[in-house]
Structures are given as C-alpha cells and as structure tokens.
Amino acid sequence: MKDPTPLQYPGSANNNEHPWSAIIQGSFYTFPYGKKETRTVKVGRVLFRSNSVIGRGPMVMQVTCVCKGSSRCDWCGKKLALKLSCPSKTRASEKAFMDKCKEKATGEHAWVLNHLPEIYYSFDIEFSAESPQAQLKEIFRDEYEMRVVRGIILEELHPLSTLKTERECAQVFYDIVQCHHWAWKYPQILHRDISEGNIMVREKNGQKYGVLNDWDLASWLSTQNEVSTSKFRTGTKPYMAHEQHSSKWQGPHRFRHDLESLFYVILLLVSLYSSPTEKVRFPSTGDHRYEKWHQQDDGVLLGQKGNIVRAGDWQPVPQPFFSGFTLWLAALQKNLRRGIFNLENHKHAVLAASQPLKPGRRPPQVPFFDEDTLGGYFSYEKVVMIMHWFNQEELKTWGQEWQVTLEEAFSEDWESEASEESY
Ligand SMILES: [Zn+2]
User: Fold this and answer.
1) Measured between alpha carbons, how far is 205 from 29 in angstroms, rounded to an integer?
2) SMART domains from the entry (predicted)?
C-alpha cells in the first residue's frame, strides 16, 4: 500500500475522537483497483479499532474519494468507510460472503439487503520483507508477518449509539436475528462474531435498519465441522457464548452460540448504559456486574456467564431507559437455562451409555438431542417469538416466512383461547 504523503498530525484529538484519528486522519491511501488502475482515498475519522478480539484487529475509518476536476468515479460523493484487517491469507474475504448473499437476496428475500453491509470493493496486499510498510506494521504489530492486509471499501454505517429510543434499539436487535437466520438458512453462512461493535444502523428513507456487519470471521455451514480446533473459538470475548470459554469445548460453532452472544450484547447495553449514547459511571470502588467483562479471562467469564445461564431465579436489572428489555432478557434466559439443563442431562446420558456393561445388560438408548437448538429451547423460532414484541407493541417482521410463522402461531393461540372459553 502506497502512502503518497507523509503522516500528518492534525493536532490533538478531542475527547470524542478515537486516539488513532490523530495519527492517521488526513493521510491518503492508494491501493490497486482491478488489474491496472489504482484508487486513492483520503482518511477521515477513525470509527472503530478493536481491542479485545481474538486473532485479528480490524480498524475502520471514514474515507472520501479524491477524484479531481472532471474525473469522477462511482465512489464520488458517497459516504465511505475503509476497513483494514490482517487476516491469514487463506481466509475467505467478507466480500465473498456478501456476494453470495446478494445472489440469493432476490424477490421475496430482497428485504435482507437492508440488513447487510454494502461492500463496494475488496483488495488484499501481500507483504514482502523489503516493502516500506511502517504505518501498517505499527497498526498490526505481530500479526503483520504471516498475513495479508485486507482492505474493504464499504458504505459508512452508524453505530448503536446513534439510536434515540428504546424501541429503535429493540427493532435493531430483532432485525439482527432475522438477518442472521436468513444468512444461515439461505446462503448458509454462519456469522460467528455477534458483538456490540458489529451491530450497525443504516438510515434509509427515514427508516432505521439494524445491519449485521463484519462478516470476516464468518464460515460456510458446509465447513462447520471441518475447522481445526484452534479455530473453533471465534468471537469477541464479552459476548462469546458461555461454553466457548471452556478449554474443554470442542466445537462446532452453532447458530445458537450467536443467539447467546446477542443475549449478552443486549444485557451489557441495557445494564451498562443509561441511554444508547451514555455509559453509566459506576463508582470506581465497586465491581459492577458485567462492567469488567472486556478485561476478564476465559475462566472468569465461563464462571460468570455459567451462573447467569443456570440460575433459576435470575432477574435482569436494566437501566431505567431500557426497562422494556426486562421481559426479553428474562424470557431469553429462561429458554437458554432450560436448553442448557437438557444439554447437560443429555451429556450425562451419553457418558452413562459409554460405561462398560454388566454381562447380559443391554446398552441404554440415548434419545436424540438437537444440539443446534438445545433441544428446541433456544431455536430461532423461540427467539423470534420472544423478540417480535416489545413493550406490548409488535415490531417489524420483514420476511414473508416469519410473518406466516407468527400469524399461524398467533391464530393457534387465539383458537385455543377461544375453545377454552367455549367450555
Ligand atoms: Zn471518485
């Protein structure tokens, strides 16, 4: 990656600025475009720089196209973001996943495009030992050597902190479930990294849409069982499913792990923020629940999340702004708890069945247990049933498929109530 100007240091960053902004704001990036061309963008604010992610560390910055005079390209005038990451050379680009989604998102599936990032361009730059890449080396440190620098140019999206009301937050989270399910079912892609930073907002024609962003840890479902053990644990620590913190966990990563991650995203947001923009200042002496999850190691998180998902009397305590989330969180936890309980019973049964038998005894039969949905307790259906209502109002369900499922479930309820009354 060429850097036609030396780094500029546009004075000290104000408090809202990401510290990296001061270092790279105002610099230019030139990168290959197609086989012969290059394109140059000017860097604006740094929007995101991850700090607690395993195996990579993307950085996202605002960029603008620098076409001059009469030369105009299809990026001119667009609000763009450049994401730089440092994946291993063999990892599929998120553009490949999104291209597959676009291919499937036609007709009655077109709604999902509102919930997926719009990626305009993706490029990889391989390193050679001689190339002067000091700036990138500084950003990526040790990860730099064995990997490529991957850049994608995408439409700029807005963070959760731009939401104004509790209901907007609820709709965005429900959108994420619908989008995640669609990607799993149709293009058969598992996202695998649900975190607060990967849930973004798109504003279009006065409507806000939840966007499931950042698909660079995603995988094809067809390879779900093939990944080597070292790659099982993906995700962002405070939001990883509880069992993924265990050294005994053998994978595979299932969709219900992502749904559990979404539970933690909601839990942390509504517990630690007094509004989407405002983090609660807890007394520095206290050890407020969840507040330290960003710094804690796997052992601690396994214990703390395990306590939540197993507790029979668990009650969420959201900040007043987010009080509507009490019902969601309680219902999600109840389903998760029942599912985990049944999963553990199932594991005991499998273990018992593997013990040596006394002569003449037949081996016990272990009934099938659906580990994808925790025996049906933590399925997409259960989560959609919980999340399509918020504060006694129906949220928007985008796909025909779920609209039909919900109508049927509702009319069955209504019929059973009506028949009870007639007795
Ligand atoms: Zn341009």
Assistant:
1) 32
2) S_TKc
CA of 394 to the centre of ligand 1 (A): 42
Q: How far apart are CA 25 and CA 28, in angstroms?
A: 9
Beta bridge partners of 119: 154
* 136 and 236 belong to one structural domain: no
Q: Assign residue 236 the CATH number of its domain.
A: 1.10.510.10
Q: For residues 190 and 333, state if they share a domain.
A: yes
Cβ pair 171, 208 in contact under 8 A: yes
Same domain (yes/no): 200, 237: yes
Which residues crowd ion ligand 1, with CB under 5 Å?
A: 65, 67, 73, 75-76
pLDDT tens digits, one per residue of 299-351: 999 999 999 999 999 999 999 999 999 999 999 999 999 999 999 999 999 99
Domain of residue 340: give its range.
159-422
- Ligand 1 centroid from CA 160, angstroms: 29
Q: CA-to-CA distance for 17 and 69, rounded, in angstroms?
A: 31
Give residue 2's pLDDT.
Answer: 32
Residues 196 and 335 in one domain: yes
pLDDT in tens, 345-390: 999 999 988 888 888 888 788 999 999 999 999 999 999 999 999 9
Same domain, residue pair 194 and 313: yes
| 146 and 164 co-located in one domain | no
Question: How far does residue 111's CA lie from ligand 1's centre (Å)?
Answer: 29
Q: pLDDT tens digits, residue range 87-131?
A: 777 778 899 999 999 999 999 999 999 999 999 999 887 765 555
List beta partners, residue 29: 41
Q: Find the 280 Cα to ligand 1 centroid distance in Å.
A: 42
